[in-house]
Specification:
Shape: globular
CATH architecture: Alpha-Beta Barrel
Number of strands: 8
Order of helices and strands: EHEEHEHHEHHEHEHEH
Strand order of the largest sheet: 1-2-3-4-5-6-7-8
Number of helices: 9
Bound molecules: 1,3-dihydroxyacetonephosphate
CATH superfamily: Aldolase class I
Largest sheet: 8 strands, parallel, barrel
CATH topology: TIM Barrel
């Protein structure tokens, strides 16, 4: 059983969510499928698919215009939330400290955070991938509770580029060895129908985090079906 997470980012609408859910319902899979949709699409029956969010506030409640609290996500039926996605880190200045607070508050409310980490191309080219990953990991993970780690090299997101299998195994083994206790580790970044099976089979990989290819059932379902 692998964990296969679709991240719709700021895409989709209610009709597209409904047709994705009915397409997912029509297949048989042993994998845990989680669909992380924009906030307004969260409500409603997931018909067997876990519906997740893409962010959560690091505050319980209060004067934080535009933010959504963990309790609100719980009320909407959410069990998983992505925190620290590189797009949040880049466009919303989220630091490791904020990511850690978000992960902690999610866990407190019974939501499993999917904590994203990954190096930039500049960091990779400078040979800093492993040190960057270790530091991001140690500063972003909460003290207690269960969480999922997603290794998403920033340069691999939406670029069509992926690390070599050796690079992925080195990175995820580092994550595995650095974590205080074993937690599932996902890979994300330019996953498609042709690379999903091989990447999901790499040692220490417990699943995939998929952006663009999760938007349409024609691309998402073949990926789910291709993973052992
Ligand atoms: P792509 O699969 O579109 O590269 O996006 C990956 C991602 O950012 C998932 O969170």
């Amino acid at each position: 059983m692998k964990i296969i997470v679709g991240n719709w980012k700021m895409n989709g609408n209610l009709g597209e969510k409904e047709s994705m859910l009915s397409a997912l319902q029509s297949i048989k899979t042993n994998h845990k499928v989680i669909l992380c949709v924009p906030f307004p699409l969260i409500y409603g029956d997931g018909f067997g698919t876990n519906i997740g969010a893409q962010d959560v506030s690091n505050h319980e409640n209060g004067a934080f215009t535009g933010d959504v609290s963990a309790q609100m996500l719980v009320d909407a039926g959410v069990k998983y939330v992505i925190v620290g996605h590189s797009e949040r880190r880049l466009y919303h200045n989220e630091t490791n400290e904020i990511v850690r607070e978000k992960a902690t508050i999610a866990i407190k409310h019974g939501i499993t955070p999917i904590i994203c980490i990954g190096e930039t191309m500049e960091e990779k080219n400078a040979g800093h991938t492993i040190s960057v990953i270790k530091q991001m990991l140690m500063e972003s993970i909460p003290d207690n509770g269960e969480y999922i780690i997603a290794y998403e090299p920033r340069w691999a997101i939406g670029s069509g580029l992926t690390p070599t299998n050796n690079e992925i195994v080195t990175a995820v083994k580092t994550i595995f060895d650095t974590l205080p206790q074993p937690m599932p580790i996902l890979y994300g970044g330019s996953i498609n129908q042709s690379n999903a099976h091989d990447i999901a089979s790499i040692p220490y990989i417990d699943g995939l985090l998929i952006g663009g290819a999760s938007l349409k059932s024609e691309t998402f379902i073949p990926i789910i079906n291709s993973v052992d």
